[in-house]
Amino acid sequence: MSTGLLFQHIEKHIPLDAEEQAFVSSLLQVKKLKRKQVLYQEGDIHKYQVFVTAGCLRSYSIDHNGFEHILQFAPPGWWIGDMRSFTTQTPGVLHIDAVDKSEILLIAKADVERLYRQLPPFERFFRILAENSIATYQHRMIDSLSLSAMERYDNFCRTYPSLIQCLPQKQVAAYIGVTPEFLSKMLNKPA
Q1: Percentage with pLDDT > 90 across the chain
Q2: What distance lies between CA 71 and its chain's CA centroid?
Q3: What are the b/e assignments for 98-108, b being 16+ CB within 10 Å?
Q4: 69: closest CA among 143, 153, 176?
Q5: CB 93, CB 45: distance < 8 Å
Q6: Which of 41, 91, 165, 171 registers the highest number of CB atoms within 10 A of its CB?
Q7: Could you give all domains of the chain from N- to C-terminal order, each with its CATH number?
């Protein structure tokens, strides 16, 4: 099981000994996704926390006109999911699929609760993740309301430097909130 990246990520916030790592590993499921394979659709209940070990996933919504609005990309080392659905075990509003051939680690809600009981530092770990996530989404919301499209594009490049060359422009445009045509014109405009 490819848990090395996950344990590097966890140990930035809480230390784990070999026995604790073995316990965490016993709770994980590995899943491989093909390019464009759907993990969750709108209306699905998100039963797992999802950690990306290879490839890239994205979360998005589709509006009533059929346009995608990408909320997040998750390259290796990132978590992704519909937190409200996971927390409340109610139908989610996000679609999540694989941008590329990917590998993910899944941990079920009941197993997260087990971690909290048996390894209390994991409450701290997931609290830190939640706080960072809230701060990131607040910042992104403010940016989407106050920054120009070019400034949002520059922020995207800083947030996802490893993805800028490999993502289709259509997906970058959906993330920053413009049409692909507008993005193309904006990027080809002389400085």
Answers
A1: 81
A2: 9
A3: bbbebbbbbbe
A4: 176
A5: no
A6: 171
A7: 4-119 (2.60.120.10)
CA 175 – CA 72 distance, rounded (Å): 7
- Indicate the length of the chain as a whole number: 191
How many other C-beta atoms lie within 10 A of the C-beta of residue 80? 24
The DSSP code for 66 is S
How confident is the model over 45-85, as pLDDT tens digits?
999 999 999 999 999 999 999 899 999 999 999 999 999 99
Max CA separation in the chain (angstroms) = 58
Q: Read off the tokens for 110.
A: 């009941």
Q: Contact, 182 vs 173, CB < 8 A?
A: yes
| Residue-level pLDDT at 191 | 63
Residue 87 predicted with pLDDT over 90: yes
Structure-block tokens of residue 177: 């909130």
Cβ pair 60, 68 in contact under 8 A: yes
- What residue ranges in 1-110 does DSSP mark as E strands? 29-33, 38-40, 48-54, 57-62, 68-74, 79-80, 95-98, 102-108
Would the pLDDT of 1 be above 60? Answer: no
Q: Angle 65-71-89 (CA atoms, 0-180°, nearest 5)?
A: 95
